[in-house]
Automatic annotation (TrEMBL):
Designated name of the protein: PNGase F N-terminal domain-containing protein
Record bears the keyword Disulfide bond: yes
Signal peptide per UniProt: 1-27
Species: Roseateles aquae
Taxonomic classification: Bacteria, Pseudomonadati, Pseudomonadota, Betaproteobacteria, Burkholderiales
InterPro entries assigned to the protein according to its UniProt record, in alphabetical order: Cu2_ascorb_mOase-like_C, PHM/PNGase_F_dom_sf, PngaseF_C, PngaseF_N, PngaseF_N_sf
Record has 4Fe-4S as a keyword: no
Domain Peptide-N-glycosidase F N-terminal: 224-408
Keywords attached to this entry: Disulfide bond, Signal
Length: 590
């Protein structure tokens, strides 16, 4: 057999060191076969992934990739060492240049069960194969393996005891198939385990249990930007638990933190993750995660909502529509940019703090997780300095506790192939124009409710484009409020949007699935008809949910002056009760 020079990365050395207790150093250089595998989906090659490489010897096999073996793989990268006869599977992951983790499993291989298909077979690379079938997580897997060669191994952890797997087919359309087999001689595993030649520094691994290993590896595949941890959002002039870098406004109902966003690579996806629980407040409250650009092209020199937070609501520009009331900071002007809302959310009735209110058959959740894709906004703020804030409207000194993270997931060819929507591809010259946000984030600092829809004019925003805007869309979030029988919280109301005076889009924002979130609402009121308050349908929100944006196509907009109008038939006041509509809109385009 030809002698092929192989250089294993440091991660292989680490694995062999861990495995040294299970097998003594080889007395002579190991010989075996090196196989290359290609992935295809619906008959087409899967782009953007390094080809799988299998090093299969008589008693062990290494699953790797060409770039890893060459020491050129990006972090994180993973390899798997398998001893079929001993039933041992060692997985190793190099997370970065200074951190390596590993996990050893002596049970997984023994649990694999296959149905041998005697009547079927095929020939791959000149070797006659037999077929074995199994089901993994509802996926039907067929393995084509041969016993004609003196080694065993597979391109995944499946089938190493069967023989040499030359093809794996999942659900009939995803295929991993061997494309090349060559011999190797001179890979002395025992010598390599004691520190053979390598270009990468040796990094001692952390040996973890299986779940911990998978969690660490998963988290290393994306960037997490922590914003708030155990942060109280309450109504109090005093900050009971100060956090470094966090500023409180509006008597503690708004928390803000300034951070520098990293450069977000084209094709990446960005999410906001919020975890909330009651710290004393029993009610469903309006919440908003928002961002204020501080130093960005198109916003530099403009006033922003930051002026109102720092100097009071009177520092924000005035908006009037003829209904006799005045609203501050809700629409864009030539010199002012309103808040950019990342996510509208609603707290449930007292999750965690009121879990002692027991009902038979109800096991309350400990917190509410909210997660929203904000790629279209975040990619347009790439590399900028921003203030990220959270508002929860409440008058409780305990209030709520939150954790907030932003996560950035770099472009991945496999993710793109299976699920990534085309609309998440960043524009060549991305544009972000905040137009309006009527949520009274400074409610506890005397910012008025958005009741401007009680007259036909509703909300009207004028803006000027210095140049044409292609593929423009309005990211629109709308929720209705007025928490009594005839209030707009419980009355479906049509939202109509106009562009330059012409009807553009109309819909009725409404949620009918609120009962599905009952276990987040231990303090929800119960009625004589058997329903809970948290069960009731509402104007585009439920206690314990986030509200999805609606994307409205604006087409290609010409340079010059434009007007966007929002009209809603807001219900009339009844005594001290009134309705309001929290709507936010930003234009994205290129």
């Amino acid at each position: 057999m030809p002698n092929l020079t192989l250089r294993l990365s440091a991660i292989v050395l680490i694995g062999l060191c861990i495995w040294a207790f299970a097998a003594p150093a080889a007395a002579a250089p190991t010989e075996g076969l090196k196989l290359h595998y290609q992935r295809t989906y619906n008959g087409k090659p899967v782009e953007g992934e390094d080809a799988i490489v299998l090093l299969a010897a008589r008693s062990e096999a290494l699953i790797s990739a060409e770039a890893v073996l060459a020491g050129k793989a990006a972090f994180p990268h993973e390899q798997t060492l398998v001893k079929p006869a001993a039933g041992e599977l060692l997985q190793l992951a190099r997370l970065n240049s200074s951190e390596t983790i590993a996990t050893l499993d002596r049970e997984a291989l023994g649990k694999q069960r296959f149905e041998l298909i005697e009547s079927e077979g095929k020939t791959i690379l000149g070797h006659r194969c037999r077929i074995a079938r199994t089901v993994v997580n509802s996926n039907t897997i067929e393995l084509c393996y041969t016993n004609e060669l003196p080694v065993a191994g597979a391109p995944t952890v499946l089938g190493h005891q069967l023989g040499l797997v030359l093809e794996l087919v999942r659900n009939g359309n995803f295929v991993i198939r061997a494309t090349q087999i060559e011999a190797f001689l001179g890979l002395d595993l025992g010598a390599m385990a004691q520190g053979g030649s390598t270009d990468e520094p040796f990094v001692a691994p952390a040996l973890l249990d299986g779940p911990s290993y998978k969690d660490r590896l998963w988290k290393s595949r994306f960037t997490t930007i922590p914003v708030f941890q155990d942060q109280i959002v309450n109504f109090s002039e005093q900050d009971r638990e100060p956090r470094e870098g966090v500023t409180r406004y509006a008597n503690g109902t708004v928390v803000l933190k300034t951070l520098q966003l990293p450069e977000i690579q084209p094709g990446s996806q960005v999410f906001v993750d919020l975890l909330a629980r009651s710290n004393g407040d029993a009610y469903d409250r309006t919440g908003s995660v928002f961002v204020i650009p501080l130093k960005s092209q198109g916003h530099a020199g403009k006033r922003s909502f930051m002026d109102g937070l720092q100097y009071g609501v009177a520092a924000l520009p005035l908006y009037q529509n003829g209904n006799g009331r005045s609203y501050r900071g809700v629409v864009a002007t030539e010199g002012y940019a309103p808040l950019i809302e990342l996510m509208r959310f609603f707290t449930p009735f007292g999750v965690k703090h009121f879990n002692h209110l027991q009902l038979k058959g109800k096991t309350w959740h400990e917190a509410v997780p909210y997660r929203m894709d904000i790629t279209d906004i975040a990619t347009r703020l790439s590399g900028q300095t921003v203030a990220v804030g959270v508002f929860i409207g409440n008058y409780d000194q305990g209030g709520h506790k939150i954790d907030l993270n932003l996560t950035i997931h770099a472009s991945d060819a496999a993710t793109a192939m299976y699920s990534k929507p085309q609309e998440h591809k960043p524009a060549a010259s991305p544009v972000l124009i905040p137009l309006f946000n009527t949520t009274n984030v400074m409610e506890m600092a005397k910012q008025d409710y958005a009741t401007m829809f009680d007259v036909p004019k509703g909300l009207e925003v004028k803006f000027t484009l210095a140049r044409p805007l292609k593929n423009a869309r309005l990211r629109y979030i709308a929720t209705g409020h007025g928490g009594w029988t005839n209030g707009d919280e419980f009355q479906p109301k049509k939202n109509t949007l106009l562009l330059d005076g012409k009807p553009l889009f109309a819909f009725v924002p409404w949620r009918q699935d609120c009962g599905a979130y009952r276990l987040f609402n231990p303090a929800s009121g119960n009625f004589n008809d058997g329903l809970s308050s948290s069960d009731l349908s509402r104007s585009n929100w439920c206690p314990g949910t986030a509200t999805n944006p609606v994307y409205i196509d604006l087409g290609d907009l010409k340079a010059g002056r434009h007007v966007v109008s929002v009209r809603i038939p807001q219900g009339a006041r009844e005594g001290e009760s009134f309705s309001a509509w929290n709507v936010s809109g930003v234009v994205v385009g290129e």
